[in-house]
Amino acid sequence: MTQIRKRLFCFGYGYTADYLGYDLQNNDEGWTIGGTTRDDDRRRALLTRRVRARIFDAEHPIYDPKTLFNRFSHILISTPPDDNGDPVFNMHAEDFANLPNLKWVGYLSSTGVYGNRNGGAVDETAEMVPTSRRGSRRAYAEKQWLSLYERYGVPVHIFRLSGVYGPGRSALDSVRAGVALRIIKPGHVFNRIHVEDIIQVLLASFANPSPGSIYNLADDKPSPSHEVIAYACELLGLPVSPLIPIEEADLAPITQSFYKDNKHILNNKIKEALGVTLRYPDFRAGLEGCLRAEERAQENENEAPEIFV
């Protein structure tokens, strides 16, 4: 069978996949892009942008999956898991076996699988001890996908993402919307990763696949959230809101769970194994980059992709 190259299919064509697809479509390597969404309006919007979009959810598995998957050399999974694990795996795991054209599979996971380390550092060799339901779901989904590598040699790679941000999805936006609270919990820090650095890592993995590998995607400087919001206010020329002790904050359960985990994610592996140099090694560089991207987009509406939040 003739080898098919430069074809990427993304399950869950959202924020990160959108940036990756846009990058590949605008290089000179002739990539073909496909992906899934749960919304028919988004599907139509993606089709206008040359993305071969399909509807996929728990009630709509992929029709004729073996034929579809064999058209693509690279498959990215960014669908959120539930208590039963990853929906793509649960509906199509066996369809991934023995695909001669499949060169790379990536699963976007979360550093939430590490749980709380009381500020300690963790690398990819650390045990998964999630302390939240979301982290437990991600840990289970990781095991599901790695089982395909172990059983069939499917070229699975796991990418554990820290807090994802970028243009249209950063502290700048929450400050503008008036919903940014400067919560202080002494000693609490977390890592972030700019969407452009996620794309850097994925492309580096495309170029140097290592099936079965796990990578932490994080910046160099874990920091408290109140510092991020303060810098966003500074960049926007707005007054910095007062600090609120976490004991006095009325937080939603999902936000409360965020403050329960405290750890420093080590990112040495993406630098040493994949040769990545972060464009945004800390939140200050990242927020400045977001502001520049917004300014460019205002000057040229075609400069950046439409963001599917």
Question: Describe it for me?
Answer:
This protein has a seven-stranded parallel sheet, sandwiched between helices. It is globular. Helix 1 (15-25) packs across helix 7. With 309 residues, the chain is α/β, with parallel strands linked by helices. It has helices at 15-25, 40-48, 65-69, 87-92, 133-152, 171-176, 195-207, 225-236, 253-260, 268-272, 283-299, and strands at residues 7-11, 32-37, 51-55, 74-77, 104-110, 121-122, 156-161, 163-165, 182-184, 192-194, 214-217, 243-245, 264-265. Helix 2 (40-48) links the parallel strand 2 and strand 3.
Major β-sheet profile: 7 strands, parallel
- Intertermini distance: 38 Å
The gyration radius over C-alpha positions equals 20 Å
**Tally of discrete structural domains:** 1
| DSSP E strands, number | 13
Number of helices: 11
Strand line-up of the largest beta sheet: 3-2-1-4-5-7-11
Low-confidence segments, ≥5 residues, pLDDT <50?
Answer: 304-309
Blueprint of the fold:
Layout: E1 7-11, H1 15-25, E2 32-37, H2 40-48, E3 51-55, H3 65-69, E4 74-77, H4 87-92, E5 104-110, E6 121-122, H5 133-152, E7 156-161, E8 163-165, H6 171-176, E9 182-184, E10 192-194, H7 195-207, E11 214-217, H8 225-236, E12 243-245, H9 253-260, E13 264-265, H10 268-272, H11 283-299
Parallel strand pairs: 1-2, 1-4, 2-3, 4-5, 5-7, 6-13, 7-11, 8-10, 9-12
